[in-house]
Specification:
31% helix, binds iron/sulfur cluster, binds 5'-deoxyadenosine, 20% strand, 508 residues, six-stranded parallel beta sheet
Length: 508
């Protein structure tokens, strides 16, 4: 039986469900120019997603494999796609060789992220040659870029389907088209859609869960591709978020990370409402779940009410990831970050005052076009002044279609690399120094599983995201336990197990 007969056999004579009402956009290849536009139309919310009868059973006897690159948003999108695959009857596999469908869920944030994907596609070519029935798909942020789609069409004929971040719910139709078509199926909408609430999910693990609170970004930092690949800011309704967190709590999850590209803009797109992230956190903290985090923050929209709510503590962890990007107001202006060094330092001091034991971590870009040594030194001095516990540090990577990519740049790559090394030295010194005070202390650890390095040892994270390794019976995995730290290393802590932590009452 060929694919056409197989699908035709399963397809009932009913008309395929029309999902076009979800989106005002048309079926086109990507356009960064269109992706830049921000319409005024209100977001509609839908909860009528279902796997059409036409597709049910498509995956029976077949396995899927998804490789995820990039941020937690992508990890979470992978969970949604896995949910759709399972709904279609596919089984998951973690071995590429066993898979009948392979998806690469890609990241476009820097050039090296993209190169990894092209490398992986290269490796998959021989597998596709051996097994022509195998379907290979590229999705995620890279698919939203015109240049990437053109390159794939031209050079990577092992790819069967390309679809974007706004088309995930269309996976069943895209798969079917790929089975039936000899051509590469490309479906990328440049304009974001509405919010579909009831997409299925297969979550990775049952200890920590991700919950989207908003999609997209309107900040348009001049170096960043995300506003183009993820569309305009769309906030989920508070009641939908609260319900999802409640359900995860009831299912035994111990930690929730609220996700958005710029969570501090949460609620700004609501019509006639002033409900913001602080209000949401104030409701979520009343839910009986031990830890709630959020990522990622933008210093510009981090308001006093949010600080006030976070200071209430309880299950709102005392760790805030607050990307600064640069310590120079001039560079921040060129980056269009819409805050100054002084604004950032002022925000940090407000946070520290309200939450004295807070841990701050950050993201920094070095070697932005024309960054001078003095401006770089301002980043170092800001780092010293704030005393971040950790930072993700990057060399600026030009992204086609962004304003910064058009700037002339007089900073040679060797200088950028040298700055990164010098910054990393400061980052490492602070991280190591931040570990020392833990020596002899008792910490609460959410046990995630067996250590990757040593199977005899369990590992997990503190509220402040410090990795702790210790010996304990395997039945504490998934629980919050107390551990006495015996050795503080540069990047992790070793300790001895004391016992399971007693559940705290939620303080209202
Ligand atoms: N080059 C280098 N780093 C970048 N980031 C975003 N865009 C770029 C780019 N073009 C970094 C920022 C952001 C993090 C997720 O990635 O620091 O906070
Ligand atoms: Fe990119 Fe800036 Fe939006 Fe973050 S806030 S996703 S860095 S544009």
């Amino acid at each position: 039986m060929n694919e056409e007969q197989r699908l035709a056999g399963q397809a009932p004579a009913t008309k395929e469900k029309d999902y076009s009402h979800y989106f005002q956009s048309v079926y086109t290849p990507p356009s960064l120019k269109d992706a830049k536009k921000r319409g005024k139309e209100a977001i509609s919310y839908h909860d009528d997603f279902e796997i059409d009868e036409h597709y049910s059973g498509m995956g029976i006897g077949r396995k899927f494999y998804i490789r995820t690159f990039g941020c937690q948003m992508n990890e979470h999108d992978t969970e949604v796609m896995a949910g759709i695959f399972v709904g279609l009857g596919y089984e998951p596999t973690d071995t590429v060789k066993d898979a009948d469908v392979i998806l690469l869920n890609t990241c476009a944030i820097r050039e090296n992220a993209e190169n990894k994907v092209f490398g992986e596609l290269g490796h998959l070519k021989s597998l596709k040659r051996e097994r022509p029935d195998l379907l290979i798909g590229v999705c995620g942020c890279m698919s939203q870029e015109e240049s990437v789609v053109k390159k794939i069409l031209k050079t990577y004929d092992q790819v069967d389907m390309v679809f974007g971040t706004h088309n995930i719910h269309r996976l069943p139709a895209i798969l079917r088209e790929a089975y039936l078509s000899k051509e590469m199926v490309v479906e990328v909408w440049s304009k974001e859609g509405d919010i579909i609430e009831n997409l299925p999910r297969v979550r990775k693990g049952n200890i920590k869960g991700w919950v989207n609170i908003m999609y997209g970004c309107d900040k348009f930092c001049t170096y960043c591709i995300v506003p183009y690949t993820r569309g305009k800011e769309r906030s989920r309704r508070p009641e939908d978020i609260i319900l999802e967190v409640r359900q995860l709590a009831a299912a035994g999850y111990q930690e929730i990370t609220l996700l958005g590209q710029n969570v501090n803009a949460y609620g700004k797109d609501f019509e006639n409402e002033t409900y913001r992230l602080g209000d949401l956190m104030d409701e979520l903290r009343k839910i009986d779940i031990p830890r709630i985090r959020f990522t990622t923050s933008h210093p510009r929209d981090f308001d006093d009410h949010l600080i006030e709510v976070l200071a209430k503590g309880g299950n709102l962890v005392n760790h805030i990831h607050l990307p600064v990007q640069s310590g120079s107001s001039e560079i921040l202006k060129l980056m269009s970050r819409k805050y100054t060094r002084e604004h950032f330092l002022n925000l940090v001091s407000k946070i520290k005052q309200a939450i004295p034991n807070v841990t701050l971590t950050t993201d920094i870009i070095v070697g932005f076009p024309n960054e001078t040594e003095e401006q770089f030194q301002e980043t170092i001095s800001l780092y010293n002044e704030v005393g971040f516990d950790m930072a993700f540090t990057y060399i600026y990577s030009p992204r086609e279609g962004t304003p910064a990519a058009k700037m002339t740049d007089n900073v040679p790559m060797e200088v950028k690399k040298d700055r990164l090394q010098r910054l990393n030295k400061v980052v490492n010194d602070f991280s190591a120094a931040g570990m020392k005070p833990y020596q002899g202390e008792i910490v609460n650890v959410l046990v995630e599983g067996v250590s990757k390095r040593n199977k005899e040892v369990l590992s997990g994270y503190t509220e402040k995201s410090k990795l702790v390794n210790f010996r304990a019976p395997a039945n504490v995995i998934g629980k919050i336990v107390q551990v006495r730290i015996t050795q503080a290393k540069s990047w992790s802590l070793d300790g001895e197990f004391i016992g399971i932590k007693e559940k705290e009452k939620v303080m209202l």
